[in-house]
Amino acid sequence: MLQVFTKLADWLTYSVFGMEAGSHLAESVHFFIEDVSKIYALLLVLIYVIGFLRAGLNTEKIRTHLEGKHRFIGYLLAAAFGAVTPFCSCSSIPLFLAFTQARIPMGITMAFLVTSPMINEVAVVLLGGTLGVPFTAVYISLGILSGVLAGMFFDFIKADRHLKPIEHKEVSDDMKERLEKAAHYKPNRQERHQYAVNEFKSVFSKIWLWVIIGVGAGAALHGFVPESVITDNLGDGQWWSVPSAVLLGIPLYANASGVIPAIESLLDKGLPVGTALAFMMSVVAASLPEFMLLKQVMKPRLLVMFFLTLLVLFSSAGWIFNLIW
């Protein structure tokens, strides 16, 4: 099926545009056409399917469900819930704040906060389409594991001591009744279809340009950057290259659609898998705007611990996969 996009790129690059096979420009253009067409097609199908399935989920009901679970099960469920929510690192914050105001244990909220921006339908589509199913499975597993470990750690250190005081407003009887109705409402097939269509329009309108930018950067790397530039500096898997990649990625505010196509080119040029994985995790799961938003509820000490936790988790994942992959 994916060969259709390769043939389309072949036809446009060499027949329509008449470019010389093997030239740097032709390789870049071919890479750009193949990846953009493939990503857009996969997004069209999978965002709709995932949106249709997710239309049956009720976030209020899930949030209530998390409160009564065994702590470890709570970590796992929060991480899994984060994996099916279509949020970037900044847009995860409102739901994180809602969890905090609902007095859900800190570890469970942190498990959600770490996992939510890392895993979503966009990341799954792009990873599966560009880097393959094995890499995608590894990334998803690491994302959920990172969330669970972060939740366990923040509960162990009793991180709730470092939260800023939060005003807990009384909920009116009318609002309680509305929330109760929403928790039990089951959308029909037509409503789920409309939700999925709207979900695709919403997601695609936000990321189509990022796909162009990300694939464009990847195409430039693919066609014009010599392999030696990557392999000589990061290709030997030096221990310091992994935390350096994480530190480089955290200030970059980008989502999966912008960074994954570039990662594909870096891997083709010889960047070790673990280093690429650590960089990708840090870019999509953390950002400076996110830390600024978290200042609303976290004291400086907790913010620093959150930053160091992400650095350790992502660097450890990178080191392990540089050794075994």
Indicate the radius of gyration in whole angstroms: 21 Å
Main sheet makeup:
none
Structural class of the helices, strands and pairings?
Answer: mainly alpha
Mean pLDDT: 76
Runs with pLDDT <50, length 5+?
A: none
Estimated share of beta-strand residues: under 5%
Molecular shape: globular
Order of helices and strands: HHHHHHHHHHHHHHHH
Give the distance, in angstroms, between the N- and C-terminal Cα atoms. Answer: 27 Å
Number of E strands = 0
* Number of helical segments with 4 or more residues: 16
Helix content: over 70%
Q: Can you tell me about this structure?
A:
This protein is mainly alpha-helical and 325 residues long. The protein is 74% helix and 0% strand. The protein is built from 16 helices and no strands. The protein has helices spanning 3-16, 24-54, 59-67, 71-83, 93-101, 106-115, 121-130, 133-156, 173-184, 189-224, 227-233, 241-249, 256-268, 273-285, 288-294, 300-324. Helix 2 (24-54) runs antiparallel to helix 7 (121-130), helix 8 (133-156) runs antiparallel to helix 16 (300-324) and helix 13 (256-268) runs antiparallel to helix 14. It is globular. The two termini are 27 Å apart.
